[in-house]
Amino acid sequence: MTAITSQMRLRARRRMLAEHYPHRVGLPETFCTYENFTALNDFCRERFGEYPKTESIYGAWEGFSDGQEMRLYCFPTPEQAAEFCAYFDGLPFDERSCKKNGKDRRIWILPGLPAHRIQHGPLSVPRWLRENP
Asked: How far apart are the first and last CA of the chain?
């Protein structure tokens, strides 16, 4: 009998999200914590009737060594993803940007130039980070 490892569970969760929640929007991980976490959950609960399904991925800009951890919010319909993306000023996730030569690298190549923003729609940098730079 084969023991189920954490890697097997992670791969199964990723397959489930890709199959049932294919429309994804990315936000920097720092904007998804503390007071912003509550705002994100409340938005999804009020508009879509359920808490959001999330996944983490590392995001890097093409040609730069700079990158950041991104949280992907997964939705079953493109309308929900577009509404979330517009409200929180997120980045639409494209699965093809993670693949190189047909292999999944699990690194999201972010569009444009490196930008570390201090605001994403109604979300701002968490208080703990503003007070302790």
From this structure: 50
pLDDT averaged per 10 residues, the chain (length 133): 79 90 93 91 94 92 85 96 95 82 76 80 82 73
Helix (H/G/I), strand (E/B), else coil: 16:
helix
* Cα gap 39→31, rounded to integer Å: 10
Instruction: Say if 53 falls within a structural domain.
Output: yes
Domain count within the chain = 1
- By residue range, what is the domain housing residue 48? 13-131
Give the other-Cβ count within 10 Å of 37's Cβ: 14
Give the Cα separation of 25 and 72 in Å (integer).
Answer: 5
- Give the closest residue to 25 by CA, choosing from 120, 122, 103: 120
Strand order, beta sheet including 107-110: 91-92, 23-28, 67-75, 53-61, 107-110
